[in-house]
Amino acid sequence: MAGLMETLTIPRACALPSASLAPVSGSCVSHRSSVRFSGFRGLKIEPTRSSQKLSSSSKFARRGSRIVCEAQDTTVEVAGVTDATWQSLVLESGSPVLVEFWAPWCGPCRMIHPVIDKLAKQYAGKLKCYKVNTDESPSIATQYGIRSIPTVIIFKNGEKKDAVIGAVPESTLTTSIEKFL
């Protein structure tokens, strides 16, 4: 899922306000290729089609450029767990594991997905995050007594340590996670 997070307009690439925004390959934008920003990962200046037609000697060659965000590669996708992968990914994990039990038809589950994604990114390397679709893996949900979704369970050393039921604020999940890191 991709969405527009913010629009940034810079009228001239040569008039960047600070050195941290300066393009990597020169102080001005080339009319033929895109230029990446050193200070912001995932951002680059890319010429538009109309600016590519102008000659490089033209003083207007740089005006048709646009800032492009390539953030799709920097997002963290929370992986799904199935009956086949449950033992190896969750129970035998050497680090704490947060598991969200959800279903595609569940509205509150869709509300908490961005929170889980954000926590996965925030605690990367310290905590593993997974999702279990209760429609596809009902035996796991039954084994842990899941009666309401979304339910978030934290496991450590293969044991259930804490459970949070419902679409709760991020702070509630953070408090629960911090107890087991």
UniProtKB/TrEMBL annotation:
Name of protein:
Thioredoxin domain-containing protein
The UniProt record lists the Thioredoxin domain at 65-181
Q: Which PANTHER family match?
A: GEO12009P1, THIOREDOXIN M4, CHLOROPLASTIC
Q: What InterPro entries has UniProt attached to this entry?
A: Thioredoxin, Thioredoxin-like_sf, Thioredoxin_CS, Thioredoxin_domain
What are the entry keywords? Disulfide bond, Electron transport, Redox-active center, Transport
- CDD domains, A to Z: TRX_family
